[in-house]
Specification:
With 344 residues, this protein is of the alpha/beta class. The chain has 7 helices and 19 strands. It has a 7-stranded mixed sheet with strand order 7-8-9-10-11-18-19, covered by helices on one side. Strands 1-2-3-4-5-6 form a 6-stranded mixed sheet. The termini are far apart.
């Protein structure tokens, strides 16, 4: 009887990026047991930026840019923070970790991970438009690019920022006996509207809701030019006529707004492109001003970076995944939870 032949056994090939493990509450970097933007307290957190859907309190140790750590301190109290400046690389175990500008809000970063010859970039939230309040997005070539898709549909193409700010200034000049009250998220959007107004030559005092004061002060401390800001609480109704007033979106239709002189209600958000949202919020002056990439920025970025694979964290995933697949780029949507659109 002939001897039975021996069957060769092969180790399965490792998949690209298999050292990163997406979970509903964040992305695990397995070789170092660290989490990116975890939504629950962890021992080691790498945080892309300070918005509450990415930065939570309660971690034993946090690595982020100095600005993001300052934002987290302001929101959650002192953090066990380890600052990493743009362009700096740190090493944990066998993983090299760098923080590169994302252009989203002050201190926002893409996290660049290098491990055993592979590079993965976790972009967090990002945009490609110029923004006087933060460092511009920096594209990084990589094997796997992890991207958002908040405005990941071809219908979303954001207009020129200057044109939107000019609409606000024109409404103010046409109604000198009224004020224009602008609803804008407290971190990033409010400061950007103010800074963009200053860039367009509007140097008059701007009145702000008390909920914006702490983060406006923080931005000013980090060198962002916001000009003269006055608290609404200390002003008389007549004082605010002919001026811009800034507040969180929730205050637009609140009792607080009754103290304002016949306000023109505006809101700054990428979602103001959707007319139904503007009507729902009783917005007279929709300002399409987003801190997220629109469809063209998303696809241009992927073309420029040319990754082998694209992973989509949240937003309108299906359209962007389809766009990638038609261009022979492997793509998939991640089942992450808690990444909302509160910052836009």
């Amino acid at each position: 009887m002939a001897p039975r032949s021996r069957v060769a056994r092969y180790q399965p090939m490792a998949k690209l990026g298999d050292w990163l493990e997406p979970h509903p509450h964040g992305i695990l970097v397995k070789p170092i047991d660290a989490w990116i933007d975890p939504s629950i307290p962890t021992a080691k957190a790498l945080v892309t930026h300070g918005h509450a859907d990415h930065a939570r309190g309660g971690h034993e140790a946090v690595w982020a840019t100095p600005e993001t750590l300052a934002i987290m301190d302001a929101r959650y109290g002192p953090q066990a923070g380890n600052p990493v400046a743009y362009g700096e690389t740190i090493r944990m175990g066998e993983v090299d970790i760098g923080f590169v500008p994302a252009g989203h809000v002050l201190g926002s970063a893409q996290i660049v991970l290098d491990y055993r010859g592979e590079r993965i970039v976790v972009s967090g939230d990002y945009k490609r438009r110029a923004d006087p309040t933060c460092t511009p997005f920096e594209p990084v070539k990589c094997d796997v690019f992890i991207t958002e898709a908040t405005f990941g549909l071809p219908v979303f193409r954001h207009p020129d920022t200057g044109d939107e700010i000019d609409k606000l200034i024109a409404a103010l000049r046409a109604n000198p006996d009224r004020c224009v009250v602008v609803g804008a998220y407290a971190l990033g959007k409010a400061q950007r509207v103010i800074a963009e107004l200053r860039e367009r030559g509007h140097e008059a005092p701007i009145y702000i809701h008390g909920a914006l004061q702490k983060l406006c002060d923080l931005y000013a401390e980090h060198g962002v030019r916001l000009g003269e800001l006055l608290p609404v609480a200390d002003a008389k109704k007549a004082d605010m006529a002919g001026h811009v007033v800034m507040c969180p979106p929730g205050a637009l239709n609140d009792r607080w707004s009754r103290r304002l002189p016949d306000p023109i209600t505006a809101m700054a958000s990428g979602w103001m492109r959707v007319r139904g949202r503007a009507r729902q919020k009783n917005v007279e002056l929709p300002l399409i001003l987003s801190d997220h990439a629109d469809w063209d920025e998303l696809t241009t970025t992927l073309t420029e970076i040319a990754p082998q694979e694209v992973w989509v964290t949240h937003g309108r995933e299906d359209a962007l995944v389809h766009w990638c697949m038609t261009r022979q780029i492997k793509a998939r949507a991640l089942a992450l939870v808690g990444f909302e659109d509160e910052d836009d």
